Amino acid sequence: MANHRIAIFGYGPVAVEVASYLRDGNHSVLIIDDDPKRLKLARSHGFPIQAMDYREDEALAKLQLGEEIHSVFCLFPEDAENVFLTLSVRALAPRVRIFSIAHGRSAVPNLRAAGADKVIEIREISGLRIWDILTRPVVVGILDRTLFGQADLNLAEVPLPEGSFLIGRPLTESGLETRYDLMLLGLVDRAGQEHFLYGPSAQDHCLQAGEVLLVIGPARAIEALGQDLRATPRKP
Question: Does the pTM exceed 0.70?
Answer without folding.
Answer: no
